[in-house]
């Protein structure tokens, strides 16, 4: 059983929660930091959290306004979330690290890597949003509805209950910055290695969009988890963790050029 410590932290006037698990004794691998998407919390990252702890110290963050955290008064931009995340990493001593973001979390980890490159050794974007060809609230809502038909019941339960806990008011406040953030432009300036990862049945983060992001990143790679929808880390946490490890090992050994074929990863 993986041990976890939960800390409540106040930074920049906002409340965050940090869920921490130690990796193997003596590990020199950089820690993983997991960032959830809009309306969500650490809970749908729990299975991936457990898998990654086999390699290194692993942290999952509940951002301001999400999970049990009170909603801030003003609307926060993607860059605001990135700033408070970086402050949290500094306080926890969790940098330099590998940032792993799902959905809107992919925007936040990208913004963090741009804001303070020295604290970020690699970035993993799982199911990144928002596809520039589908930058419409209604199209995103339709894709999420479609995706819910493909998700595991456990994923749908977590998503629904987290959405209810977040509340409509704060969800809508966070929605506008998410829709306005141009990930396709930001990713071009990220200096560290970037892995863009999607489930092969994800109707939200479609293949052309994800490949475009991987090709735009100076050191980008792309891979798919076969048979998985948007919340790939819930249905196939082992395969997602393996894909991340393969990606990081490739960059350590000087391979993993985004122009080459991406590795095959088993399902779990």
Defining traits:
single chain; 268 residues; alpha/beta; Rossmann fold; eight-stranded mixed beta sheet; globular; disordered C terminus
Q: How far from one another are the termini? A: 19 Å
Could you say what the CATH architecture is?
Answer: 3-Layer(aba) Sandwich
The number of helical runs is 10
The succession of helices and strands, N to C, reads: EEEHEHEHEHHHHEHEHH
Low-confidence stretches at least 5 residues in length (pLDDT < 50)?
Answer: 254-268
What strand order characterises the main sheet?
1-2-4-3-5-6-7-8
CATH class: Alpha Beta
* Rg: 17 Å
Strands, count: 8
In CATH, what is the homologous superfamily? Alpha/Beta hydrolase fold, catalytic domain
Main β sheet profile: 8 strands, mixed
Mean pLDDT: 93
Secondary-structure-based class equals alpha/beta
Strand proportion, as a percent range, falls in 15-25%
CATH topology: Rossmann fold
Give a quick rundown of the structure.
With 268 residues, this protein is an alpha/beta fold. 40% of the residues lie in helices and 18% in strands. Strand 1 and strand 2 (14-21) form a beta hairpin.
